[in-house]
Amino acid sequence: MSLSVAIEHRAGDFRLAADFTTQGRVTSLFGPSGSGKTTVIDVIAGLTRPLRGRIAIDDLVLLDTDRGICLPPWRRRIGYVFQEGRLFPHLSVRQNLLYGRFFAPKGEGLADFAAIVDMLGIGHLLKRRPRLLSGGEKQRVAIGRALLANPRLLLMDEPLSALDEARRQDVLPFLARIRDEAKVPIVHVSHDLSEVIALADHLVVLDAGKVAAAGPLAAVMARPDVAPLARRQDAGAVIELFVAGHDAAAGMTLLEGAIGQLAAPLRPLPIGAACRIWLHARDIILAREAPHGLSARNILPVTITGLLPHADGSRDVLLDCRGQPLFARVTPAAVADLGLAPGQSIHAIIKSVALA
Ligand SMILES: Nc1ncnc2c1ncn2[C@@H]1O[C@H](COP(=O)(O)OP(=O)(O)OP(=O)(O)O)[C@@H](O)[C@H]1O
Known about the structure:
- This is Molybdenum ABC transporter ATP-binding protein.
- InterPro entries: AAA+_ATPase, ABC_transporter-like_ATP-bd, ABC_transporter-like_CS, Mo/tungstate-bd_C_term_dom, ModC_ABC_ATP-bd, Molybdenum_import_ModC, Mop_domain, P-loop_NTPase.
- Residues 1-233 form the ABC transporter domain.
- The chain is an alpha+beta fold.
- 24% of the residues lie in helices and 36% in strands.
- Strands 7-8-9-3-10-11 form a six-stranded mixed beta sheet, with helices on both faces. A five-stranded antiparallel beta sheet has the order 2-1-4-5-6, with helices on one face.
- Helix 3 (93-102) runs parallel beside helix 5 (135-148), helix 4 (113-120) packs antiparallel against helix 5 and helix 5 (135-148) packs parallel to helix 6.
- The longest helix is centred in the middle third of the chain and has 17 residues, at 165-181.
- Bound molecules: adenosine-5'-triphosphate.
- Residues 11-12, 14, 31, 33-39, 191 line the site of adenosine-5'-triphosphate.
C-alpha cells in the first residue's frame, strides 16, 4: 500500500501544510503537542475537510479538491481507533465487535472474527459490557471492532495514551501482533518516542503544522535536523540488529549489526531474530583511548560528526559508527577535557544495561 497525503488546512490560528508519501506497514506521525498530528489523521479519515489537497491510497483517490472529489468517511473504508476506545456502553463486547463487521464491504469475504479475537486476546471478554473492562481491554476491543470492518487502512490516535504505564506495556504487544499478522497498514499518532520505535517502520515528523522529515524510521531518526525535535523528549539512535548467539555462562545475548557486535543481558530470543534498539544518548560514554580493565565488548570505534548544544547546558555529540549515527550526551566540561571536535576518532562505550 502506498498512502500519499498533500493537504493544506487552517483551524483558528493553526496552519497545516503537510505533504508526505508512505509505504510503511506502520507509519507513525510523531511531533510535539499541537503540531497537527490529529488534524492530519482526521483529514485522512474524512472527519475534517481541508482547505485544499489530495489524498490517495494506491490508485484510489479519497480527496482531490482540484477535481471536486471528497469521499465521505464511510466510503473510505478506513478504521479509526481513538484515544479512549469509544465503545457502545449498552452493547456487549461481542456486539461491539460485530458492529464493526456491519461496515465491512459485501462480497469481499468477512474478516475472520475468531482470528481477530484470538490475536487481541479478548475471547474471555465477549459477554461483558464495556464498563466492566479495563482501559487496556477496551482499547483492544476498539481495535478489534475497527479490524472487523475490513479496513484498507487503520488509523490510531494515541491508542495507549489514556492507559497507565503498566497497561501500555500490556497492549503494546497486541499492536505489534496486528502489525505482523493482520494485513492492514496502520497510521499511528504518538508523541511517545518509545512507542514509535516499538511499532513503526516509517516515520513522519510534524512540527508546527509542517512535515519536518518523512521516511524509514532509522533514517529519519538519524537526521540532524530531526534530532532537535526528538531531543525535546530524549536523544538517541535507532539501531537494527539480529541475535547472533547466547553466552549463558556470562549471562549475555550477542547482538550483531552493521555497527559490529554488542553484548546485551541474556534474553530468550531465537538466533537470527531481528531486534531494534533505542540507544539513549545518556547510555553512551566517550573515551579518547580504548579503556583498559574493561571487557572489550560494547566498545565501538566512532568518529565525531558534530556537537550540538542542549537546552540544559549539556552537549549532544553526534557520532558515526560504520555509517550508523549515534548520539552521546556529555557535559561542557567533558567536551573541554576530552578535547572533543568534529572529525576526531574516539571510543564509544555502551552500557550493557542500555541494551536490556
Ligand atoms: N477547530 C479548531 N479551532 C481552532 N484551532 C484548532 C482547531 N482544531 C485544532 N486546532 C489547533 O490546531 C493545532 C493542531 O492540533 P492537533 O490536535 O492536530 O495537534 P496534535 O499534534 O494532534 O496535538 P496533541 O499531541 O496535543 O494531540 C493545535 O494548536 C490546536 O489547538
